């Protein structure tokens, strides 16, 4: 029969180019045509037959046009009422009493026709399906709710609109092909009307619509075409049992109920009230949105704990931190819900001294505390085991060979595992830890600024001790970076500072109340630092302190030895300057050359002497050469005579060989360019 589709399409076509007056005129023509077709139209100048508008079950079973007749009649009365309302909406005085009563009478008439149609369709002989019966009830309740809205009878209006909302929500999930029609009605008409009626009845604005509809149907006394509202609720639950319960972040997919994981739930439906316990204070939360958010937070934490237990040590720190995203999202929803509730009360002019406002402030502090605690827990997971106190080697990733050699890849991975990690990479990981510690310390400062935390002396002392614990971890990470770069003295100072900080934090963390801390066997990490973590860090820092002192002592001794050896070698010449002497002892390989080099004198032959030699003539150079030649001849003759050999007669001056001509002097530097 498609009752809803027929009504919505008729209204859309008429209002596309006109108003409700045009719609009423069109309905009059359509009513006349359908009455003529069914042969129930009044003759010309004939008496009007009131019984012609009444329909029977047999007529509906034979022809669906009788259903259309009832719908058009109801719509005509509705259009007349809306036309009058639109005509008087622009008046400064508004809608007067007479006009309002006329509008209400038209809406009552429309509701009666719709209720009569619903009663006829409830009979099984009519041939109507279950969805047709529900749509008829919804249409009758919609018109009755509009009439109660104009009467300002808010309880009756809320009950009828709640029935319409429940029916259309169930049908939208059961009939995907017509889901758009139902959703448009829910979004544009029903939900704003429900909210306004709930506001008039002094209900919290943050209460979810499913809770409003469920409570309204539970206490309803008069719903159009519905003798017993419990029957209507059971019909809706048969189609979709999750309609009359709020959709939280944990149950939006409908795959898991909150009953098994979150307290405060009954039969898989989130309770509209919840008792919140925080710091030995019990707060009863009456806001359904906040209660649902807390229930969803409990379920998200239960899922996270199960995931961490299943993963165990096989999960990498990044994977464990990624598992915290759902918990952080739900905790942020809880914070937003508390803030929205406080803002609503402020807008209504409720003072801060009001008990409801004080309870909401406590809930807001608890929600912020839980959100920041989970954020700190994720940072602790990212730093590694024992909050990053232990230095872990980076992951070794073996690249497979191009030829597909698996043995080579394994051998390469083993070789890299045996090789120590590069200092640069280790420094980068230490820097990431320092950033995480800074974020944790900033989150702790945010917790101290929450309302009510400063007045809690025990909690403030615990937060101060926790801050000192993370300051010690940060100082340890920075000390290790100094040790890698060779600054042993700075590393010793930082390790000593870390040891002092964790010693001061030890009494505050071990003596704090652990009632709100997680269980010992729980893998969840949050703001609470256990006594075992403090003791482990204290023992580790004690060992690191002794190690740093030993390194500084060794460095000082080496510096003294080097300074003594350097003083003895200060006057010794370098080996490169004494190459002409054989070393008497062992060769000092640390003094091969003079470093750093310095400017010093070097013996060289002046170049101007070579230039001068080319231009200087000595006076005795020619005479000395002739005397030397004569002396040589006389000596040769004397030697020959003494040996008894015949000597040749001396050559006369005329026959003597001519003297050699004197060669010209060489010019140029070092004989070049001769």
Automatic annotation (TrEMBL):
<keyword id="KW-0687">Ribonucleoprotein</keyword>
<keyword id="KW-0733">Signal recognition particle</keyword>
<comment type="similarity">
    <text>Belongs to the SRP68 family.</text>
</comment>
<protein>
    <recommendedName>
        <fullName>Signal recognition particle subunit SRP68</fullName>
    </recommendedName>
</protein>
<keyword id="KW-0539">Nucleus</keyword>
<dbReference type="InterPro" id="IPR026258">
    <property type="entry name" value="SRP68"/>
</dbReference>
<feature type="region of interest" description="Disordered">
    <location>
        <begin position="503"/>
        <end position="523"/>
    </location>
</feature>
<keyword id="KW-0694">RNA-binding</keyword>
<dbReference type="InterPro" id="IPR038253">
    <property type="entry name" value="SRP68_N_sf"/>
</dbReference>
<feature type="region of interest" description="Disordered">
    <location>
        <begin position="402"/>
        <end position="421"/>
    </location>
</feature>
<dbReference type="Pfam" id="PF16969">
    <property type="entry name" value="SRP68"/>
</dbReference>
<dbReference type="InterPro" id="IPR034652">
    <property type="entry name" value="SRP68-RBD"/>
</dbReference>
<feature type="compositionally biased region" description="Low complexity">
    <location>
        <begin position="641"/>
        <end position="660"/>
    </location>
</feature>
<keyword id="KW-0963">Cytoplasm</keyword>
<feature type="region of interest" description="Disordered">
    <location>
        <begin position="641"/>
        <end position="674"/>
    </location>
</feature>
């Amino acid at each position: 029969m498609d009752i809803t589709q027929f009504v919505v399409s008729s209204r859309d076509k008429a209002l596309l180019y006109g108003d409700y007056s045009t719609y009423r005129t069109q309905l009059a023509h359509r009513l006349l045509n359908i009455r003529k077709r069914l042969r129930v139209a009044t003759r010309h100048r004939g008496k009007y037959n009131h019984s012609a508008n009444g329909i029977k079950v047999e007529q509906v079973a034979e022809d669906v046009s009788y259903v259309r007749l009832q719908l058009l009649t109801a719509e005509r009365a509705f259009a007349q009422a809306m036309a009058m309302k639109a005509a008087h909406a622009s008046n400064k005085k508004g809608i007067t009493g007479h006009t309002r009563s006329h509008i209400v009478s038209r809406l009552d008439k429309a509701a009666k026709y719709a209720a009569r149609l619903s009663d006829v369709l409830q009979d099984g002989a009519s041939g109507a399906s279950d969805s047709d019966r529900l749509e008829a009830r919804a249409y009758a309740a919609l018109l009755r709710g509009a009439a109660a809205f104009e009467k300002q009878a808010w309880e009756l209006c809320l009950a009828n609109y709640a029935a319409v909302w429940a029916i259309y929500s169930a049908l939208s999930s059961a009939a995907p092909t017509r889901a758009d029609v139902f959703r448009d009605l829910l979004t544009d008409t029903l939900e704003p009307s429900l909210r306004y009626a709930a506001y008039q009845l002094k209900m919290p604005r943050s209460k979810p619509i499913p809770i409003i509809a469920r409570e309204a149907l539970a206490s309803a006394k008069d719903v159009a075409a519905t003798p017993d509202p419990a029957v209507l609720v059971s019909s809706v639950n048969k189609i979709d049992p999750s309609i009359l319960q709020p959709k939280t972040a944990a149950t939006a997919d409908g795959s898991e109920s909150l009953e098994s994981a979150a307290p405060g739930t009954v039969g898989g439906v989130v309770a509209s009230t919840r008792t919140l316990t925080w710091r030995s204070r019990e707060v009863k939360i009456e806001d359904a949105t906040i209660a649902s958010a807390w229930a969803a937070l409990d379920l998200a934490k239960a899922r996270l704990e199960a995931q961490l237990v299943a993963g165990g040590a096989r999960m990498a720190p990044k994977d464990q931190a990624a598992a915290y995203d759902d918990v952080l999202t739900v905790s942020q929803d809880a914070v937003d819900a508390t803030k929205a509730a406080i803002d609503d009360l402020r807008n209504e002019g409720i003072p801060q001294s009001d008990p409801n406002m004080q309870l909401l402030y406590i809930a807001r502090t608890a929600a912020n505390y839980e959100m920041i605690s989970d954020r700190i827990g994720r940072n602790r997971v990212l730093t590694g085991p024992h909050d990053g106190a232990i230095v872990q080697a980076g992951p070794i990733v073996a690249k497979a060979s191009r030829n597909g050699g698996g043995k080579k890849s394994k051998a390469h991975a083993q070789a890299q595992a045996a090789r120590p990690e590069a200092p640069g990479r280790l420094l980068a990981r230490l820097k990431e830890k320092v950033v995480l510690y800074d974020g944790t310390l900033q989150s702790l400062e945010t917790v101290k600024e929450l309302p009510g935390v400063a007045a809690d002396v025990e909690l403030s002392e615990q937060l101060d001790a926790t801050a000192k614990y993370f300051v010690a971890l940060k100082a340890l990470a920075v000390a290790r970076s100094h040790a890698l770069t060779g600054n042993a003295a700075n590393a010793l100072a930082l390790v000593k500072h870390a040891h002092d900080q964790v010693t001061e934090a030890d009494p505050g963390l071990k003596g704090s109340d652990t009632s709100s801390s997680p269980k010992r066997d729980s893998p969840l990490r949050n703001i609470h630092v256990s006594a075992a973590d403090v003791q482990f860090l204290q023992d580790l820092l004690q060992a690191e302190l002794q190690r740093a002192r030993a390194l500084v002592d060794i460095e000082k001794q080496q510096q003294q030895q080097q300074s003594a050896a350097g003083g003895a070698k200060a006057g010794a010449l370098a080996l490169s300057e004494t190459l002409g002497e054989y070393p008497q002892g062992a060769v000092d390989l640390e003094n091969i050359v003079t470093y750093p080099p310095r400017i010093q004198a070097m013996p060289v032959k002046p170049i101007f002497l070579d230039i001068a030699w080319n231009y200087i003539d000595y006076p005795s150079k020619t005479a000395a050469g002739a005397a030397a030649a004569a002396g040589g001849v006389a000596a040769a003759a004397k030697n020959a005579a003494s040996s008894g050999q015949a000597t040749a007669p001396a050559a006369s001056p005329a026959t003597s060989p001519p003297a050699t001509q004197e060669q010209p002097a060489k010019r140029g530097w070092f004989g070049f360019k001769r």
